[in-house]
Design brief:
The chain has 243 residues and is α/β, with parallel strands linked by helices. The protein has one domain: Aldolase class I (TIM Barrel, Alpha-Beta Barrel). Helices cover 47% and strands 16% of the residues. It contains eleven helices and eight strands. The protein has an eight-stranded parallel barrel, surrounded by eight helices. The chain starts with 6 loop residues before the first strand and ends in a 5-residue tail after the last helix. The model has no long low-confidence stretch (mean pLDDT 95). The structure holds cytidine-5'-monophosphate (C5P). Cytidine-5'-monophosphate (C5P) binds next to β2 and β8.
């Protein structure tokens, strides 16, 4: 993956018109555009088409349902040409395996590439206390480790994790597992509502493969220039040995 292919810009906008405007302003600079529930809810598969004009599409719906429903959603997304998809690893082994099988079958049927499937472990909005409330007694670190192992055991392609978790996960899983990291901020950016941020270079050096950035790029006065600056930081980070 080159540096451009390691940046996903989140199209966190409420309408197709807004998505078109941001896609246009990005000028094909980032390798990925991320479509979340807001834009997908507003525009459906048209959002995938707009995002996919000059980038690969990362559909971030964090699927979590019975295996049959998730399999069907993954099959449709695959046929629509989505390049990466998120699922909650807590949905369990059967759900994750059904998603993987559906992606394989749908890709073969539609002549599309199989999307990269990444598991969400523990949302960064949850802490140890919040996890206790839903019955998880051994805290965020224990639950993340458990769900990373589950994701690997069903041959998911990777997980979403914070830059703080990347180094430890990378040591456990080796090189062939995709680590997708949000909460990235340049030194000059505002943190918005992200509590724990890392710079692009820090995240790459910690072992993250794909960095997700929204507001600092999409709301910049020149989004293409802002994306290019992040890609340069990623490149610099790649020049340093990881570990
Ligand atoms: O605007 P900002 O850079 O904070 O956008 C971050 C993007 O990454 C959002 O689309 C958000 O859904 C996503 N994300 C996150 N934190 C997570 C998982 C995903 O901010 N733990």
């Amino acid at each position: 993956m080159n540096a451009r292919e390691r940046l996903a810009v989140a199209l966190d906008v409420p309408s197709l018109d807004e998505a078109r405007r941001v896609e246009e302003a990005l000028g094909g600079v980032p390798g990925w555009l991320k479509v979340g529930a807001e834009l997908f809810g507003a525009a459906g598969p048209e959002a995938i088409r707009v995002a996919g004009r000059r980038a690969r599409v990362f559909l971030d719906l964090k699927l979590h349902d019975i295996p049959n429903q998730v399999a069907r959603a993954v099959a449709v997304a695959t046929a629509n040409g989505v390049g990466m998809l998120t699922l909650h690893a807590a949905g369990g082994a059967a759900m994750l395996a059904a998603a993987r099988d559906a992606a394989d079958e749908s890709a073969a049927r539609s002549g599309r590439q199989r999307p990269i499937l990444v598991g969400v472990t523990v949302l960064t909005s949850l802490d140890d206390t919040a996890l206790k409330e839903v019955g998880v007694r051994d805290g965020v670190a224990g639950q993340v480790a458990r769900l990373v192992e589950l994701a690997r055991s069903v041959r998911l392609d990777g997980v979403v994790c914070s830059a703080r978790e990347s180094a430890a996960i990378r040591r456990r899983v080796g090189p062939d597992f995709t680590l997708v990291t949000p909460g990235i901020r340049g030194l000059a950016d505002a943190c918005d509502d992200q509590a724990r941020t890392a710079t692009p270079g820090e995240a790459i050096r910690a072992g993250s493969d794909l960095l997700v950035m929204g507001r600092p790029i999409a709301r910049a006065s020149d989004p293409a220039e802002a994306a290019a600056a992040v890609i340069a930081e990623i490149e610099a980070g790649l020049g340093v040995p990881q570990g």
